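Quick one before lunch.
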Amino acid sequence: MNLQAYLSKNKKVIDRALDKFLPEARSSYIAKVMRYSVFAGGKRFRPALMLLVCEALSGKVKQVLAAACAVELIHTFTLIHDDLPCMDDDDYRRGKLTSHKKFGEDMATLAGDAMQALAYEILLKETKGVSLQYKMRALETILEAIGSDGVVTGQVLDIQSEGKKISLSALENIHLKKTAALIQAAVKAAAILCGASTKKITQLDRYAQHLGLSFQIADDLLDYTSSFAKMGKQPGSDKKQKKSTYVSLLGKEKARQLMVKERDQTRRAISFLGKKGKRLAELADFVIKRER
Ligand code: GRG
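Model of the geranylgeranyl diphosphate complex:
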């Protein structure tokens, strides 16, 4: 099975689980608001990555499935908040109106908050075949990644650097926190839940950090070159918001070269997996070739 077919099979597994874990649409208004964004057509990249890590470590899907859904909920919550008028003020996401455009800022904010709470609840309650100690370590890993030293600070720095030309290392620092941190947490949480050794977790963390940076450079390139039809959101938004990007700092060609270099480093980090790392290596290729 090629990676594309494999990812769409995994996506179905994730979508079914998310549908099971989310409150039913008819149960409350906020459930309807939450479901709107969760099922708006995201790629499910982070949960797919977690299932691939699980497979590479010979773990069982039930050990990581709830955590994979938890990470997707956290990711979706950050997108909803990122789109708010007080942040990026975007009208479209995943080809649909953003949550606040559809339901208002109050409901969008609350839906994001509820998703974050639900994420921790399902990770703890619905993870199967794993000791409480491992669940707590996975939870701790995710919390550390998104808090004041992780995604939140990435967002703060991103906002503070609007309208300024920042250095390449300052840009990298923003994206290590804003984008790579959650991808790293996803990979590490999956490895912890599958009982991986500290040494393996460290190598997988390295893989995920380079993967996260290549993912972000691809995002910047797409924002520069792609279309609404392909991306499901308005291209050129970085330029409109006067944000420094890999493309604005390096130009298209050098940004592409850096992206390939990051991809190459993902391969080195997982060489210890041998043949078992084949899918993870393919995923790193997919990241830099993606069209949305
Ligand atoms: C984490 C506590 C906490 C607060 C949130 C708003 C905010 C603080 C952070 C914003 C983080 C953010 C939006 C990062 C961008 C990451 C990124 C590259 C998103 C695009 O991900 P894809 O391409 O999207 O996987 P889809 O739609 O496919 O899921």
